[in-house]
Automatic annotation (TrEMBL):
Residues 211-413 form the Tyr recombinase domain. This is Integrase. Keywords: DNA integration, DNA recombination, DNA-binding. GO terms for molecular function: DNA binding. It comes from Primorskyibacter flagellatus. The keyword DNA-binding applies. GO terms for biological process: DNA integration; DNA recombination. PANTHER family: PROPHAGE INTEGRASE, PROPHAGE INTEGRASE INTS-RELATED. Gene3D superfamilies: 1.10.150.130, Integrase, DNA-binding domain (3.30.160.390), Intergrase catalytic core (1.10.443.10).
């Protein structure tokens, strides 16, 4: 068994070892560099070094943010500075105290963004900071950021994009809180709302009302659906499926074949739609849901028919795939609705406008159209909300309400499909044909 005093060979670690090691302890490399693995699995690069006759340890960061190659480079640089009479430890302390906001975001993200449930949300968080905060704050030392800097960042967005600006303020406040606790700044947080920015900016609720996504008017649904069914292409099929299921765009675009259960008959291309329709279910895993909870969708005969007609791409798991096999972009589905609207305008018609704000309807607004239809048809509120994957009631109520009403929702979604075709369907099950053929 190797003792603590035995010299390890230079550059004895490998990148693979650093990635996979779980044994707690100190795993040595060259130039005094070692990887410290704690009992909880946390890893940190540390360098033992003698500076002006005094033995010290310098933390060099943690993998995977700091790779083995980078750690070796830092250790070699530190050793060179110490041999020339410098003090790399003092330099690191000074550097920590002089981080720019951009550097602080990088350090904060390496630690805190692990809390996010998906890579998509991590990218969205970073993108919002880079687009909206960096123009005003990126190069300012984090210790020097004051209220005037925060106002300069927020004011271009506060009135026109209030909801976005509120999120931005909260994120910057969290970053600056972390910087204070980590020793990079002192004093009050200039991004704090209460007793601070609240006195300088108008209340968000007084600036602007939340703008709902433009929805399709119920009276336009049958015409719009008939026009959509005449369109070809993967994005058009995805939009049809999105409409039939009242799902979100990301849920449909990320849908994979293994999320679909066609019931007792599993051969999608050989089983009649009528046989599948009574039990076909799409189960979206919690990792892909906005609320972080698994969601089941009852598939109607029309939804199953769309799936039956789709090609499959080898080596692509996606049901609605992009030309190269990856996930469809959100813009591709939105583009279908935009082109449908443009066709209406070219024909001299107003097109498919939201009845309230007169803006062209968009894919996400179709969920509002479904919700309005369900309310007007007398379906129970909770059942419609569950169909939209919304949380209902308090935490206590949800703990006792375990059923997701799947079979009751199946009947509701079949009625919704009939309404899209032009049937006037009421909750009692009576159907009046309005003249639109499927």
């Amino acid at each position: 068994m190797a003792g603590a005093g035995i010299r390890k060979p230079q550059n004895s670690l490998t990148a693979r070892f650093v990635e996979t090691v779980t044994e707690p302890g100190k795993h040595f490399d060259g130039h005094g560099l070692f990887l410290r693995v704690r009992p909880n699995g946390a890893k940190q690069w540390v360098q033992r070094i003698t500076i002006r006759g005094k033995r010290s340890e310098i933390g060099l960061g943690s993998p995977p943010a700091i790779s083995l190659a980078v750690a070796r480079k830092l250790a070699l640089e530190n050793r060179g500075k110490a041999m020339l009479g410098g003090d790399p430890l003092a330099e690191r302390r000074a550097a920590r105290e002089a981080l720019t906001f951009a550097q602080t975001v990088e350090a904060y993200a390496a630690v805190k963004l692990k809390e996010f449930k998906s890579e998509k949300h991590r990218k969205q968080w970073l993108s919002s900071i880079e687009r909206l905060a960096f123009p005003a704050l990126a190069d300012i030392l984090v210790r020097d950021i004051d209220v005037a800097d925060i106002l300069r960042m927020l004011e271009p967005h506060w009135r026109e994009r209030t909801v976005t600006a509120k999120k931005l303020r909260g994120r910057v406040e969290a970053i600056l809180n972390w910087a204070t606790v980590s020793g990079h700044r002192t004093g009050d947080n200039p991004a704090r709302w209460g007793g601070n920015l609240k006195e300088l900016l108008p209340a968000p609720g007084k600036v602007t009302q939340v703008q709902n996504q433009p929805a399709l008017a119920l009276g336009d649904v049958a015409d719009w659906w008939a026009a959509l069914e005449r369109r070809d292409g993967m994005a058009a099929k995805a939009l049809q499926f999105l409409t039939l299921t009242a799902a979100r765009s990301g849920e449909v675009r990320g849908m994979t074949w293994d999320e679909i259960d066609f019931g007792a008959k599993s051969a999608i291309r050989t089983t009649p739609v009528a046989t599948l329709a009574t039990s076909a279910t799409w189960t979206i895993p919690a990792s892909r849901m906005k609320g972080g909870r698994e969601h089941r969708v009852a598939l109607t005969p029309e939804a199953v028919a769309i799936l039956q007609g789709l090609p499959r791409m080898e080596d692509s798991p996606f049901v609605f795939f992009a030309p190269r096999g990856g996930m469809l972009s959100d813009m591709s589905i939105s583009a279908v609705m935009r082109r449908m609207q443009e066709s209406e305008v070219k024909a001299g018609r107003a097109g498919y406008l939201d009845p309230r704000n007169k803006r062209p309807a968009v894919p996400h607004g179709l969920r509002s159209t479904f919700r309005q239809w369900a309310a007007e048809q007398g379906y129970p509120r909770d059942m419609a909300e569950v169909a939209l994957a919304h949380f209902i009631g308090s935490d206590v109520e949800r703990a006792y309400q375990r059923s997701d009403m799947l079979e009751r929702r199946r009947a509701m979604m079949s009625a919704w499909a009939g309404f899209l075709r032009g049937d006037k369907v009421v909750a009692t099950g009576n159907i009046v044909k309005m003249g639109y053929a499927p």
